[in-house]
Every structure is written in C-alpha cells, then in structure tokens.
Amino acid sequence: MKYIVNKTFDExxxxxxxxxxxxxxxxDIELFAIMSGDVNPSHVDAQFAHSDLFHKIVVHGMWGGxxxxxxxxxxxxxxxxxxxxxxxxxxxxxxxxxTVTVKLxxxxxxxxxxxxxxxxxxxxxxxxxxxxxxxxxRAPIEKIRRxxxxxxxVVLRKPGELYEDLIKKxxxxxxxxxxxxxxxxxVSLLGAIESAKAKIITPILVGPEKKxxxxxAKLKIDLSPYKIISTPHSHAAAEEGVSLAREGEVQxxxxxxxxxxxxxHATLMKDIGISTExxxxxVFVMDVPHYPRFLLVSDAAINIYPTLEDKKDIVQNxxxxxxxxxIPHPKVAILSAVETVTSKIQSTLDAAALCKMxxxxxxxxxxxxGPLAFDNVISKExxxxxxxxxxxTGKPDIIITSDLESGNILVKQLEYLSDxxxxxxxxxxxxxxxxxxxxxxxxxxxxSSALAAILIHKKIQLKGxxx
Length: 467
Fold this sequence. Notes:
Distance between the termini: 63 Å
Number of helices: 15
C-alpha cells in the first residue's frame, strides 16, 4: 500500500524544495470548469478561443494555483498543512499539451507560529515561467503517515455529444420536406421548429390550426414561415400526412401529439398507406454514457411479438440505418436470456436462424451473432468467461431484442439508470417516420430528424441523383 508522509516544521530547512510535473489535458480543463463553475469561453469554447487573445483554449489561471496546493498538501509540508494565503502573478497562458513543472522553495520560517513562506514558480516545457508568487502555510508539528487514498476515476462525457457529431458530419444535407402530424402541444411543435431552424427539415404542420397556433403562442413562435394544413382532429391529420407522403409531397413524417399506433394505423391503410414489402420497424439510436459509439436497439416501439420473418426485416432495417450513418459492417447482437440454442426459448431459435440467414445472404451488410445474453453482448470479459468466441461481443453496434416488451424495458433502463439519450426513427415505409417522445431532450429530437434526412440523402445518392 502507498503511503503519504509529511515533514514537520522542525524537519523543514530554508532552501528546501519540492515539485511536481503535469501535462495539461482537455479533461483537466473540463474538470476544473465543472468544479469551479467557471465556463469562460476562453477555456471551454474552441471556436471562441480561436478568435481570442491567445488563439487557442487555455486553462484557468487558478488551475496552476491548485497544483501549488497539491504540492503543499501532499509533498511539502504534506498532511496536516493549513493553507493561510497566496499571492500569484500569471505571466503566460498554459494550453492543452503543455507540460508544466511546479516548484516550491522554502523562503522563510516563523518559529513563533510555525508558519512557512514558500516561493512558487511554474515553468513550461519551453523553460518559460508562466506563474510565480508566494504561498504561506502553517506547517504540522507532528509526524503523519497515512495510506494514500485512491480517488474514483472520473469519466467525462457531454450528454448528446455523439448526436452533435452526427449532425455536424451531415450538416450540408439539404432540408427535407416533412409532414409534422398533429403538433398541437408545445413539445412536439418545438421539436419541429428546432429541426427547421437547424436546417434539417422543412416542416408542413398538419392538424387543427387553432390548436397549433395556441401552442405556438405559448412558445412565442411565429409560424408565418411555415405551411399549415388544417384538419379537424388527429385521425384526419395522420391520414392527411400519410397521403402527402404517398403522393411524394413530403419526404418524411414526424409524429406530433398523437399516439404512435394512431399514426402507424394510417400508414397501413390500403388507399393512402405507405407500407412496402419490407416490414416496418423502429430503431432507437442511443447515446449511452461510457459507451464509445452509437448503440442501435430494435424493435422497441412497433412490432409487439415479431415472427422470424418480421425479425429478418427488423435486422435489415437496423443494418441499413447503421450503414447510412457511416457504421460500416455493423456488428449485430441477437438478444435472448441465454447464449445457447434451446427449443424451450423461441428467441434462441430465432437468433440461430437469423444468423444462418445472414450466412446465406438473406440478410446483408452486417455481422450477426446470437443468441447472446446481455452480459455477453456488452462485456467481452463475460463472454470470455463463458467460452464465447464472437466478433460481436463487447462491441455491438446493434442489439435486436426478442419482442417489443423486452426492447422497451432495455431502452428505458438505459435512459433512466444510465442517463442515455435516444433518437428514434421508423424504417421500412416509403418514407422515414420520425418518432419523438415528450421526454426527449432537444438534441435527441434534432438527431431523430437528422436520421431521416440522412436516409433520404443516402437513398438519393444510391439513385445517382444529386440532392
């Protein structure tokens, strides 16, 4: 066990020194900003910092002061030290990647009250002094030796960061005409308008105009730039929106303040429906903290008890979406309660059949494995312990659940226990359908719209037509 040991006032000599060396990282800056609440854009906004005095992100001046405190509290004098005061001058900025040496030298000792004054100096890798000054402490008079406390590891992750990267990556996609079905509450209307302002969609608002305008008034939004098609109620709005999609007047649909089954019923109607030979299915594109990539989960919203043929289309839809967002050869985990095939659990039989379908070319573009229990899907170590050798375990891009119930439970667990965010879209119809939830954060709603725009863009590219 590592120990931390101090030096008492009597042991310390004038001229004695201690130092530490540290290389500044982006994580250091973010942690200091979180702890202090100092979000000056010079420290945390790369775009602003580029045009600022130093033309780059620099760390807070007091970050250097905190390193001085580190030396005083852990090295010289060490445990038992009471920090009384400091006076510092900041000479040069410290940027990401700079390596600084913090050196403290004993200047004066006051035996009357056991105070010690230190000269403080911070020098960068170019031998430039970036900070200097003095620090005054009351030194310990008793020897202290304690086990060094192991601090918890801090993992920083900005919520929705993957969504932001996705939207930026495809920022030049032309906005798609989108029928927003029954946006009569503030949440659904705001999601559509935010997507429009982000130049992802061009919305056509379909529903009772009076209610739509009332929602806009509460949000203080001017709807004059947007087309409104008035309908008497949500059923009519769903039918009108689906009809627009069928006639090619819009390229996508967005769910507003109506039930999902009400909208999906209209998509399946014989005269105006937009179903295809492919089974429609829903895909959650999830941004899960501590998971380094998108995690796609299907189907947790449309197909309640899918058959094997349904699952074939569910898998293919998810693979197509993954490829569209630049995940080549996505790894697909077919989820079940166990990792062995047994006639007692239908989902294991379906998983085995789906994998063989992929082998025979009936499912294309992905790497499938299953059945796999959730621990084996996420943890390579868990799979290794059970003797499972798989290219999917530990790093899946897509998880296919056995039914809607298990899929919905999984998604909600990730959202409420792991603070995940979930963008959602329905694939398999003639146009993509953007499904948003009242609890979705703004960035997730924008990401859902972006997924539809990306699918339309990719489809146009495949036809050889410029968007």
